[in-house]
Specification:
The complex is a heterodimer of chains A (78) and B (237). Chain A is mainly α. Chain A has four helices and no strands. Chain A is globular, with a radius of gyration of 11 Å. With 237 residues, chain B is of the alpha+beta class. Chain B has a five-stranded antiparallel sheet, sandwiched between helices. The longest helix of chain B is centred in the last third of the chain and has 55 residues. Classes of the chains: A mainly alpha (78), B alpha+beta (237).
Chain lengths: 78, 237
């Protein structure tokens, strides 16, 4: 299954979050991939696993939580 | 004539480079030390501040006297003034008499109201890039003469290197502290996942999914939920 990364990049840009900041937040949540691998995933390169993708999604959603928006970025599965 | 003071001054500056990072607990303390030294290097200086450009906007990051940031702010609000002009043109700008200088009236009026009667604004440059300014304010008209300008320019060239280095040092420190904090939160989340795996006989991936669904459902951060879970387990709950 191909994971859709477009909403992640759109959300990241909307939040004004650098890729490195996003990686830090992802790492804090238990993400296991390197900044380079996360960068490639976001650029449409080799994909992360479904779980790592969802940890990234959650990192973005927690940033939205600070702006009173409840989890707008979709997870790979409910 | 300037040879001797310059030599002593250089020694002081070398000492500054050695001590400014280790003797201060944070970037602000280090920058304030630089501003204080800039002011004390010139007899006529009554207040000094350091402006750094952040994302194209000027910001006073250190000062020796409350009047300095106020006068800087008058310039930032007006988007013009000797400090901003020195940064823009990369040239030192000396005002002998603020009462008589008509170029930046708001700034000059604010300065004279505060007992500041002359100013010396220097760009802080590293390589080709001007990243800020050193603002020196004098309590008397003509507080800064040609030789003061030379000393201040020398100081500013050293200060620029020191500031760039301490900024890099503290930014690395901040990054390390930030990652330390991230590691601590990560450990709590891992603990909570471990608890769920034990209780629900599930995989680590499934445990994360449970936590993030709880975060989504309760509209709370995952770390808070994990933290509560770990605390409850610690209390035998």
């Amino acid at each position: 299954m191909t994971l859709d990364v477009a909403p992640l990049e759109a959300a990241r840009e909307l939040l004004g979050l650098s890729r490195h900041r996003l990686w830090e937040a992802y790492f804090e949540l238990g993400g296991n991939s390197s900044p380079a691998d996360v960068g490639q995933h976001l650029s449409g390169g080799p994909q992360l696993t479904r779980l790592e993708h969802d940890v990234l999604v959650h990192a973005l959603n927690e940033e939205f939580l600070d702006r009173d928006m409840n989890h707008p970025v979709p997870y790979s599965h409910p | 004539m300037l040879q001797e003071p310059q030599g002593a001054f250089r020694d002081q500056l070398d000492a500054l480079v050695r001590t400014v990072v280790t003797g201060n607990k944070d970037l602000n303390g280090a920058l304030t030390a630089v501003a204080k030294m800039g002011c004390s290097a010139l007899d006529g200086c009554t207040a000094a501040s350091i402006t750094l450009m952040e994302n194209g906007k000027p910001k006073t990051v250190a000062f020796t006297d409350g009047r300095a940031p106020e006068l800087d702010q008058v310039q930032y609000d007006a988007r013009t003034g000797p400090c901003l002009e020195a940064i823009r043109t990369n040239e030192t700008l000396r005002i002998h008499s603020l009462a008589e200088d008509g170029r930046w009236r708001k700034f000059s009026d604010a300065a004279t109201e505060r007992g500041v009667r002359s100013s010396l604004s220097l760009p802080l440059t590293l390589g080709e890039q001007t990243f800020g300014g050193l603002n020196l304010y004098g309590g008397e008209e003509g507080a800064f003469q040609d030789e003061d300008e030379e000393v201040a320019a020398l100081f500013a060239s050293y200060a620029a290197a020191v500031i760039a280095n301490v900024a890099a040092y503290w930014s690395a420190q901040e990054l390390a502290e930030h990652l330390q904090h991230a590691m601590e939160n990560r450990a709590t989340i891992e603990q909570a996942k471990g608890l769920l795996m034990g209780r629900q006989h599930c995989s680590a991936d499934e445990a994360f999914d449970m936590l993030r669904r709880a975060s989504q459902r309760e509209n709370r951060k995952l770390r808070e939920i994990a933290d509560e879970m770990v605390q409850r387990a610690g209390n035998g709950g």
